[in-house]
Design goal:
Residues 16-144 form the TY-Chap central domain. InterPro entries: TY-Chap_M. The structure is a single chain. By secondary structure, the chain is α+β, with helices and mostly antiparallel strands. It has a single domain (2-146), classed as Yope Regulator, Chain: A (2-Layer Sandwich), CATH 3.30.1460. The protein is 37% helix and 29% strand. The protein has four helices and eight strands; from the N terminus they run αβββαββαβαββ. The chain has helices spanning 9-26, 74-84, 112-137, 142-146; strands at 39-43, 46-53, 59-68, 91-95, 98-106, 140-141, 152-155, 159-162. The relative contact order is 0.17.
């Protein structure tokens, strides 16, 4: 039983695997989920959220909260759809007054490099679309606010790049 619900053995193994990945990547002593089963992961200077969903084939969902406190409107959903057609292996969604940039991976086969690469992809997409979404639709810019001084670096001739 996890978070007051029965889970399959595969899901329980996947959650343990995810906790080990988080601990290795971040150096935290013990990765612990919140009441809803989400893990907060501060990696490479920014905060991502992750969770395990599914029973027979557990999926690791990794996401960044671009904006919090956003009302759902037809204009917002049209803007998110327009972004989604430009994304590969990611999606942008509105859930419970939040705009999320999300990527998924098979939980049992994911390794540290794949987890970090998915965070990198999410960060790049959140940076590309986040400011305009917050400007156009409001809310509190959560992903941008989570970034610390270690988040950006400047590569010769390439400008700011997420590491």
């Amino acid at each position: 039983m996890r978070h007051n619900r029965l889970v399959s053995l595969q899901t329980d193994i996947a959650a343990s695997h995810l906790e080990t990945l988080i601990e290795r990547l971040t150096g935290v002593h013990k990765a612990v989920p919140d009441a809803e089963g989400d893990y907060s992961v501060h990696l490479r200077g920014a905060t991502f959220m992750t969770r395990i969903d599914g029973d027979d084939l557990p999926i690791c969902r990794i996401y960044a909260i671009i904006s919090d406190g956003v009302e759902k409107t037809s204009e917002l959903l049209e803007a998110l759809n327009a972004i989604n057609v430009r994304l590969t292996f990611l999606r942008i969604i509105w859930v419970r007054n939040q705009i999320l940039m999300e990527g998924n991976h098979l939980a049992l086969t994911m390794d540290e490099a794949e987890f970090a690469a998915k965070c990198n992809d999410i960060a790049n997409a959140a940076n590309a679309f986040g400011d305009a979404l917050v400007t156009d639709f409001g809310g509190t810019a959560r992903f941008k606010a989570s970034q610390d001084s270690g988040y950006l670096t400047v590569r010769e001739g390439q400008g700011p790049v997420y590491l």
